[in-house]
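We include the pair:
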Amino acid sequence: MSNLKGTRDGFGEGIIQAAKLHPEVIVLGADLDDSLRLTGYKKEFPDRFIQVGVAEQNLAGTAAGLALAGFTPFITSYAAFNPGRNWEQIRTAIGFSNLGVKIIGGHAGLTTGEDGASAQSLEDLALTLVIPNMTVIVPCDAIQATAATLALASTPGPGYLRLSREPSQDLTQDLPFILGKAQILRLGADATIFATGMMVEAALQAAQTLQIHNWQIQVVNLHTLKPLDRHAIITAANQSGIIVTAEEHQLIGGLSARVSQVITSELGKTIHQPTILESVAIDDKFGESGPATAVMEKFNLTAKAIVAAMETAMFRKSRL
């Protein structure tokens, strides 16, 4: 387990690379620098780091000013506070002016574990997706977090990068990261699981388990929720008409909502068959304190839950 990394570790590596490539990159902290893996960055670029302290509204406002002066600021804290505490400043000072500030939300989701419900940000995707011009990325492993950091550094406008503390397997080794382009991690014609972040590994495990039914399940990593790969969703719907989504976020306003919006949109009229959608997500609840694995099991964010959702979707499809 010691060789595994969290997506926050990938960010720590990526921000150093981004700073070397882009002299305009500057990082702002809110007294959680070690947790966001910024120790290496601060050592290498001490003159390109600003410690704002526990003042997240100032974090966003200061970054907006720096962006207007030509910098590309990365503002860093826990997702519960950034964008949780400073959402109005992000919306008005950054989003409304379409400034190139990159918001880094660490320790997102339930896997903060013992930190408890107050620090378990389950609403951050909804908060950022709703802001016009905002790029929203949820990497599934450290490799992808590094690539996403580099992509954000060279992408105009505001962006949000959601990071996890929990270590995970490397799932995207040697796969290209293209902003807004979904990654097919497993092929299968019978149904598709769209997953994001920490739930991608569980989706792959579920697909493997579902082979007991002789079902060949496609697993797609939707790492970018905005801009969204609508083509991948339409293609999956036309292929099987059976989709399961899996996310470590509230059911309202996250991955499931994005996928269902595509299916029911004008573009969805190109789907030539009824499409069943089942979702694995937090169903309108706050989190609880406990070890990450235990909390994920308590809230049914597991491979087992994805298997059950797929079995339900298959049954519903058979009744049409």
Observations:
- The chain has two domains: 7-162, 183-318.
- Residues 183-318 form a domain with the Rossmann fold fold (CATH 3.40.50.920).
- The CA atoms of residues 19 and 45 lie 8 Å apart.
